[in-house]
Give the backbone structure.
Amino acid sequence: MRIAVLSLSLLALAACASPEARLRTGLVNAGLSQSIASCMSERMVDRLSLLQLRRLGSLSSLKDKKISDLSLNQFLRKVRALKDPEILTVTTSSAALCAFR
């Protein structure tokens, strides 16, 4: 019985990745380098709410595409379509600051 409870606890913990880790993984999967994705996710998680992070993650049109295949204007148009100026501001400022680190 103890083993079952321990196993379920470990599975529950594994399923609960931190928002920063999920965002970092999403950015890496989208084609960003590990260092830029880490920098951006750290900044963005501190500045956006969980709801905003989920909305950003809901950009289904960006799934299976590499950010490098999109122009900056196309990417910003997708983020702007969320109609949340804070998401747009935090995303663009994070990308700019982290690119020059």
About this structure: Residues 6 and 43 are 34 Å apart (CA to CA). DSSP finds six helices and no strands in the chain.
